Predict the 3D structure of the following.
Amino acid sequence: MKKHRKYTVQGADSSSEVAAILKKVKELEIKSKELTTNLFSGEYRTAFKGRGMVFKEVREYAAGDDIRFIDWNVSARMGAPYSKLFEEERDLTMILLVDVSASSLFGTSSQRKRDLITEVGALLTFSAINNHDKVGVIFFSDVVELFIPPKKGKQHALYIVRELLTMRPVGRGTDLNEAVRFFNAAVHQKSIAFILSDFMVERYDDPLRVAGNRHDVIGIKVYDKMDMDLPDVGMIQVKDAETGQTQWIDTNDKMVQYNYHQQFVRNEETCRLTFLKSGADLLYLRTDEDYVKVLQAFFGRRNRTIK
Protein backbone atom coordinates (compact mmCIF):
# COMPACT_ATOMS: atom_id res chain seq x y z
CA MET A 1 0.00 0.00 0.00
CA LYS A 2 1.38 3.37 -0.89
CA LYS A 3 2.21 5.80 1.87
CA HIS A 4 0.05 8.80 2.61
CA ARG A 5 1.14 11.97 4.25
CA LYS A 6 1.46 11.91 7.99
CA TYR A 7 -1.13 14.26 9.37
CA THR A 8 -0.34 16.48 12.33
CA VAL A 9 -3.26 18.12 14.07
CA GLN A 10 -3.06 21.76 13.21
CA GLY A 11 -3.85 23.75 16.31
CA ALA A 12 -5.89 26.89 16.33
CA ASP A 13 -4.07 30.17 15.90
CA SER A 14 -5.06 31.62 19.28
CA SER A 15 -6.39 30.66 22.67
CA SER A 16 -9.80 32.06 21.69
CA GLU A 17 -9.92 29.73 18.68
CA VAL A 18 -8.94 26.79 20.87
CA ALA A 19 -11.73 27.68 23.29
CA ALA A 20 -14.23 27.99 20.43
CA ILE A 21 -13.25 24.57 19.06
CA LEU A 22 -13.49 22.92 22.48
CA LYS A 23 -16.89 24.52 23.00
CA LYS A 24 -18.12 23.21 19.65
CA VAL A 25 -16.80 19.73 20.45
CA LYS A 26 -18.76 19.78 23.71
CA GLU A 27 -21.91 21.02 21.95
CA LEU A 28 -21.69 18.23 19.38
CA GLU A 29 -21.07 15.68 22.13
CA ILE A 30 -24.15 16.80 24.07
CA LYS A 31 -26.38 16.98 20.98
CA SER A 32 -25.21 13.61 19.69
CA LYS A 33 -25.69 11.92 23.06
CA GLU A 34 -29.21 13.35 23.41
CA LEU A 35 -30.18 12.14 19.94
CA THR A 36 -28.57 8.76 20.50
CA THR A 37 -30.32 8.30 23.85
CA ASN A 38 -33.75 9.65 22.93
CA LEU A 39 -34.11 8.72 19.26
CA PHE A 40 -31.54 6.15 18.19
CA SER A 41 -31.07 4.01 21.28
CA GLY A 42 -32.53 0.66 20.08
CA GLU A 43 -32.70 1.79 16.47
CA TYR A 44 -28.94 1.71 15.89
CA ARG A 45 -28.47 -1.46 17.93
CA THR A 46 -30.84 -3.51 15.78
CA ALA A 47 -30.18 -1.83 12.42
CA PHE A 48 -26.86 -3.59 11.91
CA LYS A 49 -26.14 -7.27 12.26
CA GLY A 50 -23.09 -8.62 14.04
CA ARG A 51 -20.37 -10.60 12.29
CA GLY A 52 -21.94 -13.94 13.21
CA MET A 53 -22.88 -16.23 16.07
CA VAL A 54 -20.50 -16.85 18.97
CA PHE A 55 -20.63 -19.45 21.73
CA LYS A 56 -22.25 -18.24 24.96
CA GLU A 57 -22.72 -21.20 27.31
CA VAL A 58 -23.83 -24.81 27.75
CA ARG A 59 -27.11 -25.61 29.47
CA GLU A 60 -29.25 -28.71 29.97
CA TYR A 61 -31.14 -29.72 26.84
CA ALA A 62 -34.71 -28.39 26.67
CA ALA A 63 -37.55 -29.40 24.38
CA GLY A 64 -37.24 -27.53 21.09
CA ASP A 65 -33.46 -27.15 21.18
CA ASP A 66 -31.70 -27.92 17.90
CA ILE A 67 -30.17 -31.39 18.26
CA ARG A 68 -27.28 -30.25 16.06
CA PHE A 69 -26.06 -28.13 18.99
CA ILE A 70 -25.99 -30.92 21.58
CA ASP A 71 -22.57 -31.00 23.27
CA TRP A 72 -21.93 -34.74 23.36
CA ASN A 73 -18.80 -34.48 25.50
CA VAL A 74 -20.55 -32.53 28.27
CA SER A 75 -23.63 -34.74 27.95
CA ALA A 76 -21.50 -37.88 28.47
CA ARG A 77 -19.85 -36.41 31.58
CA MET A 78 -23.14 -35.18 33.09
CA GLY A 79 -25.19 -38.23 32.19
CA ALA A 80 -27.85 -36.02 30.55
CA PRO A 81 -28.12 -34.12 27.25
CA TYR A 82 -26.68 -30.59 27.22
CA SER A 83 -26.97 -27.98 24.42
CA LYS A 84 -24.62 -25.25 23.28
CA LEU A 85 -26.12 -21.77 23.28
CA PHE A 86 -25.01 -19.09 20.82
CA GLU A 87 -25.62 -15.37 20.58
CA GLU A 88 -25.07 -12.80 17.86
CA GLU A 89 -21.66 -11.18 18.02
CA ARG A 90 -22.36 -7.48 18.56
CA ASP A 91 -18.79 -6.21 18.42
CA LEU A 92 -19.15 -4.10 15.28
CA THR A 93 -16.77 -1.74 13.54
CA MET A 94 -17.92 1.49 11.90
CA ILE A 95 -15.78 3.40 9.41
CA LEU A 96 -16.66 6.91 8.27
CA LEU A 97 -15.31 8.02 4.89
CA VAL A 98 -15.52 11.80 5.12
CA ASP A 99 -15.21 14.11 2.10
CA VAL A 100 -13.24 17.23 3.08
CA SER A 101 -12.70 18.54 -0.46
CA ALA A 102 -13.29 22.20 -1.28
CA SER A 103 -16.80 21.55 -2.62
CA SER A 104 -17.90 20.55 0.90
CA LEU A 105 -17.41 24.20 1.96
CA PHE A 106 -20.37 25.26 -0.19
CA GLY A 107 -23.71 26.16 1.36
CA THR A 108 -26.41 28.79 0.85
CA SER A 109 -28.72 28.11 3.80
CA SER A 110 -28.01 27.96 7.51
CA GLN A 111 -24.97 25.73 7.11
CA ARG A 112 -22.40 24.42 4.65
CA LYS A 113 -22.24 20.84 3.45
CA ARG A 114 -19.13 20.41 5.60
CA ASP A 115 -21.07 21.51 8.71
CA LEU A 116 -23.81 18.97 8.05
CA ILE A 117 -21.26 16.22 7.42
CA THR A 118 -19.57 17.09 10.72
CA GLU A 119 -22.84 16.87 12.69
CA VAL A 120 -23.86 13.58 11.12
CA GLY A 121 -20.35 12.18 11.56
CA ALA A 122 -20.41 13.10 15.25
CA LEU A 123 -23.84 11.53 15.72
CA LEU A 124 -22.78 8.27 14.05
CA THR A 125 -19.55 8.23 16.07
CA PHE A 126 -21.32 8.53 19.41
CA SER A 127 -24.00 6.04 18.32
CA ALA A 128 -21.24 3.48 17.75
CA ILE A 129 -19.29 4.32 20.92
CA ASN A 130 -22.41 4.24 23.11
CA ASN A 131 -23.10 0.73 21.83
CA HIS A 132 -19.52 -0.35 22.62
CA ASP A 133 -18.56 -0.58 18.96
CA LYS A 134 -15.34 0.56 17.33
CA VAL A 135 -15.28 3.57 15.02
CA GLY A 136 -12.63 4.91 12.67
CA VAL A 137 -12.44 7.63 10.01
CA ILE A 138 -10.90 8.10 6.57
CA PHE A 139 -10.73 11.79 5.65
CA PHE A 140 -10.26 12.30 1.92
CA SER A 141 -10.05 14.97 -0.77
CA ASP A 142 -8.15 14.07 -3.93
CA VAL A 143 -5.81 12.19 -1.57
CA VAL A 144 -6.36 10.30 1.66
CA GLU A 145 -5.77 13.08 4.17
CA LEU A 146 -5.93 11.09 7.41
CA PHE A 147 -6.81 7.60 8.56
CA ILE A 148 -7.91 7.18 12.17
CA PRO A 149 -7.93 3.42 12.91
CA PRO A 150 -11.08 2.13 14.63
CA LYS A 151 -11.14 2.03 18.42
CA LYS A 152 -13.63 2.16 21.26
CA GLY A 153 -14.10 4.71 24.02
CA LYS A 154 -15.27 8.23 24.71
CA GLN A 155 -11.84 9.85 24.36
CA HIS A 156 -11.47 8.29 20.92
CA ALA A 157 -14.88 9.66 19.94
CA LEU A 158 -13.93 13.16 21.12
CA TYR A 159 -10.69 12.93 19.11
CA ILE A 160 -12.71 12.09 15.99
CA VAL A 161 -15.09 15.00 16.57
CA ARG A 162 -12.16 17.41 16.98
CA GLU A 163 -10.75 16.21 13.67
CA LEU A 164 -14.14 16.59 12.00
CA LEU A 165 -14.18 20.21 13.16
CA THR A 166 -10.59 21.18 12.49
CA MET A 167 -9.41 19.16 9.49
CA ARG A 168 -7.47 21.34 7.03
CA PRO A 169 -6.98 19.25 3.90
CA VAL A 170 -3.97 19.48 1.60
CA GLY A 171 -6.03 18.61 -1.49
CA ARG A 172 -8.92 20.58 -2.94
CA GLY A 173 -10.36 18.07 -5.39
CA THR A 174 -12.27 14.83 -4.80
CA ASP A 175 -11.03 11.31 -5.55
CA LEU A 176 -13.59 8.87 -4.23
CA ASN A 177 -11.90 5.99 -6.04
CA GLU A 178 -8.72 6.54 -4.03
CA ALA A 179 -10.63 6.80 -0.75
CA VAL A 180 -12.64 3.59 -1.26
CA ARG A 181 -9.58 1.68 -2.51
CA PHE A 182 -7.72 2.77 0.63
CA PHE A 183 -10.66 1.58 2.74
CA ASN A 184 -10.72 -1.80 0.97
CA ALA A 185 -6.98 -2.26 1.55
CA ALA A 186 -6.82 -0.96 5.13
CA VAL A 187 -9.95 -2.49 6.68
CA HIS A 188 -10.14 -6.28 6.42
CA GLN A 189 -12.76 -6.98 9.09
CA LYS A 190 -16.35 -6.67 7.87
CA SER A 191 -17.51 -3.18 8.83
CA ILE A 192 -20.31 -0.67 8.56
CA ALA A 193 -19.04 2.03 6.21
CA PHE A 194 -20.73 5.42 5.92
CA ILE A 195 -19.50 7.53 2.98
CA LEU A 196 -20.34 11.20 3.61
CA SER A 197 -19.89 13.28 0.45
CA ASP A 198 -21.67 15.37 -2.16
CA PHE A 199 -20.51 12.74 -4.71
CA MET A 200 -19.81 15.43 -7.33
CA VAL A 201 -17.23 13.13 -8.91
CA GLU A 202 -16.70 10.84 -11.86
CA ARG A 203 -17.19 7.08 -11.88
CA TYR A 204 -16.26 5.06 -8.81
CA ASP A 205 -18.08 1.80 -9.66
CA ASP A 206 -15.27 -0.73 -9.28
CA PRO A 207 -13.93 0.02 -5.78
CA LEU A 208 -17.45 0.59 -4.44
CA ARG A 209 -18.56 -2.80 -5.79
CA VAL A 210 -15.64 -4.44 -3.97
CA ALA A 211 -16.52 -2.57 -0.76
CA GLY A 212 -20.20 -3.51 -1.11
CA ASN A 213 -19.30 -7.21 -1.34
CA ARG A 214 -17.15 -7.09 1.80
CA HIS A 215 -18.86 -4.52 3.99
CA ASP A 216 -22.20 -2.96 4.85
CA VAL A 217 -21.91 0.31 2.88
CA ILE A 218 -24.19 3.33 3.23
CA GLY A 219 -23.69 6.47 1.17
CA ILE A 220 -24.91 9.80 2.54
CA LYS A 221 -25.21 12.29 -0.30
CA VAL A 222 -25.11 15.80 1.15
CA TYR A 223 -26.26 18.59 -1.13
CA ASP A 224 -27.41 22.20 -1.11
CA LYS A 225 -30.57 23.52 -2.78
CA MET A 226 -28.36 25.66 -5.05
CA ASP A 227 -26.64 22.47 -6.24
CA MET A 228 -29.98 21.74 -7.93
CA ASP A 229 -31.14 25.10 -9.25
CA LEU A 230 -29.67 28.52 -9.96
CA PRO A 231 -31.38 31.58 -8.45
CA ASP A 232 -32.62 34.34 -10.79
CA VAL A 233 -30.03 37.01 -9.99
CA GLY A 234 -28.81 37.99 -13.45
CA MET A 235 -25.16 37.88 -14.51
CA ILE A 236 -22.86 36.43 -11.85
CA GLN A 237 -19.32 35.17 -11.78
CA VAL A 238 -19.01 31.63 -10.45
CA LYS A 239 -15.90 29.81 -9.29
CA ASP A 240 -15.27 26.09 -9.14
CA ALA A 241 -14.13 25.52 -5.53
CA GLU A 242 -11.96 22.55 -6.48
CA THR A 243 -10.31 23.71 -9.73
CA GLY A 244 -10.35 27.48 -9.11
CA GLN A 245 -11.76 28.14 -12.61
CA THR A 246 -14.18 31.06 -12.95
CA GLN A 247 -16.77 32.02 -15.54
CA TRP A 248 -19.66 34.44 -16.02
CA ILE A 249 -23.16 33.02 -16.41
CA ASP A 250 -26.58 34.57 -16.93
CA THR A 251 -28.79 33.00 -14.27
CA ASN A 252 -31.91 34.48 -15.91
CA ASP A 253 -31.28 32.46 -19.07
CA LYS A 254 -33.79 29.57 -19.09
CA MET A 255 -31.45 27.29 -21.04
CA VAL A 256 -28.64 27.94 -18.54
CA GLN A 257 -31.02 27.10 -15.70
CA TYR A 258 -32.20 23.95 -17.46
CA ASN A 259 -28.68 22.69 -18.21
CA TYR A 260 -27.57 23.40 -14.66
CA HIS A 261 -30.49 21.42 -13.23
CA GLN A 262 -29.96 18.55 -15.68
CA GLN A 263 -26.34 18.27 -14.63
CA PHE A 264 -27.50 17.73 -11.04
CA VAL A 265 -30.10 15.18 -12.19
CA ARG A 266 -27.49 13.21 -14.16
CA ASN A 267 -25.12 13.20 -11.21
CA GLU A 268 -27.88 12.02 -8.88
CA GLU A 269 -28.93 9.23 -11.25
CA THR A 270 -25.34 8.06 -11.69
CA CYS A 271 -24.86 8.04 -7.94
CA ARG A 272 -28.11 6.13 -7.33
CA LEU A 273 -27.35 3.45 -9.92
CA THR A 274 -23.76 3.03 -8.76
CA PHE A 275 -24.85 2.35 -5.19
CA LEU A 276 -27.69 0.10 -6.34
CA LYS A 277 -25.34 -2.05 -8.45
CA SER A 278 -22.90 -2.26 -5.55
CA GLY A 279 -25.56 -3.56 -3.17
CA ALA A 280 -25.14 -0.47 -0.99
CA ASP A 281 -27.69 1.93 0.49
CA LEU A 282 -27.88 5.63 -0.38
CA LEU A 283 -29.41 8.43 1.69
CA TYR A 284 -29.97 12.07 0.73
CA LEU A 285 -29.43 14.99 3.12
CA ARG A 286 -30.03 18.62 2.13
CA THR A 287 -28.32 21.36 4.11
CA ASP A 288 -31.62 23.06 5.01
CA GLU A 289 -33.53 19.92 6.02
CA ASP A 290 -33.72 17.82 9.20
CA TYR A 291 -31.15 15.03 8.96
CA VAL A 292 -32.52 13.36 12.10
CA LYS A 293 -35.75 12.36 10.32
CA VAL A 294 -33.80 10.90 7.40
CA LEU A 295 -31.59 8.81 9.70
CA GLN A 296 -34.59 7.68 11.77
CA ALA A 297 -36.39 6.51 8.64
CA PHE A 298 -33.26 4.67 7.49
CA PHE A 299 -32.77 2.87 10.81
CA GLY A 300 -36.49 2.03 10.84
CA ARG A 301 -36.29 0.45 7.38
CA ARG A 302 -33.24 -1.53 8.41
CA ASN A 303 -34.97 -2.83 11.53
CA ARG A 304 -38.04 -3.96 9.57
CA THR A 305 -35.83 -5.71 7.01
CA ILE A 306 -33.83 -7.56 9.67
CA LYS A 307 -36.95 -8.67 11.54
